[in-house]
Amino acid sequence: MNASAARWADSRIESPSLAELAAEKISELVFRGELRPNDRLVEEHICQRLGVSRAPVREGLRILEGSGLLVRRPRAGVSVAAFSQDDVFEILSFREGLERMSVEHLYRYTEDVQKVDSSELDAAFERLVEEFRHGDDEFNRIQASHGFHTELVRLCGNSRIITSYTQITMQVKLCMSMNLRKLRPIEPPESNISRHRGLRDAVLSGDLHEALHAIDTHGHDAFVHDLLDDLPEGTDRLKQWIASHQRMIEGAEN
Predict the structure, then answer these.
(1) Nearest to 26 by CA among 50, 48, 44
(2) What's the pLDDT at 8?
């Protein structure tokens, strides 16, 4: 390969990785709360913050637009997505539906669920334990929590379900960041660990009813009852969803 071809090959490898890194760093600013809903992102400021040129930042913004974390409006540029009550309802109900689907698929097409390889899920749980027990970084806790749920979904082995779940990662993480900020003052880290341990054990129990009940009552939507009051009002469907989940969680506690 001559020098010119080598430089061309290097550029083809380097640019996407820089863009992905830019997207990762920008999303981290959002999840840490340094960029808030409706905040406008100015390319020049982001370039200075990340220490990279405009090209990867511009591409990183496009990646995050595609994920639903950022939105682009005519004559207004790019800003952080501001969710309405219905947005949160759709994201969380879709996430829960995918988790239920993955568990149902696991039980339908696995001869003995109790013997399934759970090593990746267990490793993700240990990372979660480490972050909630010994760490104090909200973003790392979000990463660990979502990593656990992603590995839970991966148990099903259905690539379409897994892909659908990963495609809403950014929107789910934004909801999770809202969740943790709301729960942090009232839920001790050990309670969070216990909830996730219970979910892991129920899904691998061999009892489909117990596994699905654990998904329904896990509490990843617990924050909505207070937090949604601060968002634009939603539809009757959302109110019914909140009421049904509240009854389910209260039933699980009694």
Answers:
(1) 50
(2) 47
* Residue count of the chain: 254
How far apart CA 58 and CA 41 sit, in angstroms, is 11
β-bridge partners, 80? 70
Distance CA 32, CA 178 (A): 10
Q: Which helix (H) or strand (E) holds 136?
A: none
What is the spatial distance between Cα 113 and Cα 208, in angstroms, rounded to a whole number? 10
Contact criterion met (CB below 8 Å) for 184 and 138: yes
Burial class (CB in 10 A: 0-12, 13-18, 19+), 21: middle
Question: Do 147 and 128 contact (CB within 8 A), yes or no?
Answer: yes
CB 92 within 8 A of CB 175: yes
Residue 72: strand pairing partners: 78
The number of angstroms, rounded, from the C-alpha of 55 to the middle of its chain's C-alpha atoms is: 27
> Tokens in use for 20?
């992905």
In terms of pTM, does the model score above 0.90?
no
- Give the phi and the psi of residue 111 in degrees, each rounded to 5: -65, -45
The tens digit of pLDDT for each residue in 111-137 reads 999 999 999 999 999 999 999 999 988
**Taking CA 111 as the corner, what is the angle to CA 195 and CA 101, rounded to the nearest 5 degrees?**
50
Burial of residue 243 (CB within 10 Å: 0-12, 13-18, 19+) is exposed
Element (H, E) at 77: strand 77-80
Q: Is the distance from CB of 195 to CB of 218 less than 8 angstroms?
A: yes
